[in-house]
Predict the 3D structure of the following.
Amino acid sequence: MNIALIGYGKMGQIIEKFAIDRNHEIVLIVDENNRDQVTVEELQQADVAIDFSTPSAVLENIEFCFRANVPLVVGTTGWYDKLDDIKEQCLTHNHTLMYGSNYSIGVNIFFHINKLLAKAMNPYKQYEVQVEEIHHTQKLDAPSGTAITIAEGILENYDSKSSWINNVIGEDEAIPKNNQLLIESHRLEDVPGTHTVLYSSEVDQIEFKHTAHSRSGFALGAVIAAEWLHDKTGFYNVKDMFKFD
Ligand SMILES: NC(=O)c1ccc[n+]([C@@H]2O[C@H](COP(=O)([O-])OP(=O)(O)OC[C@H]3O[C@@H](n4cnc5c(N)ncnc54)[C@H](O)[C@@H]3O)[C@@H](O)[C@H]2O)c1
């Protein structure tokens, strides 16, 4: 496949390596410094585009891919308040987009088991549930998109929580109400991404944890997603690639 990379930062550069390893060609690299010069015709040389840019750039990049009618895998997080608008535009005009807070295969298995665990824990009110995420200090959004997906998986299956609330450790901290699921965000040097779900009672604690050793898992997953998406039409979440049920 011919691939366009949109965003050539930490993730874009690792995705390039995995794409070449899997015999794809990178036909276009778009970053902040050349974004204004790239034309629709240049983008149309690609069978599929992969965006790992920034929360402030991603919406314009999505519209650019829609204009070129090039299928797009979006890894960038921090824009999901606009998801419904983008979905409508995508479906109305027969474009193709996949989004996902985390393209790692392991994390997608984690998302699935997280829901099953919440369902199993639901009757046992002596446990208090909490989500913790740790990421590197350059991360622009908090909580992480992955932590939000984990929280949503719990809320769907756990009656005593109806919304989530975020505390970034070291900043002003809110006290969660009983029906609020706390997501604690920690920012530490060089951590690619660690997510833990904790169920704590007076007598014990269950910890369910995923630790990314590097960014490679996200990058490989994004290339596999591009391979899956490039000949489809429609609006997808990364979970649509997996057949867990
Ligand atoms: N979904 C996942 O699996 C996953 C995994 C890791 C990171 N992410 C997300 O991906 C995004 C990128 O992460 P990163 O670690 O590579 O960040 P990064 O800061 O290293 O790279 C972002 C790149 O985007 C470029 N950019 C800025 N404006 C642009 C524009 N208008 N058009 C194109 N490029 C532009 C920047 O110059 C930079 O090179 C973040 O939102 C991060 O949270 C998602």
About this structure: The CA atoms of residues 58 and 76 lie 7 Å apart.
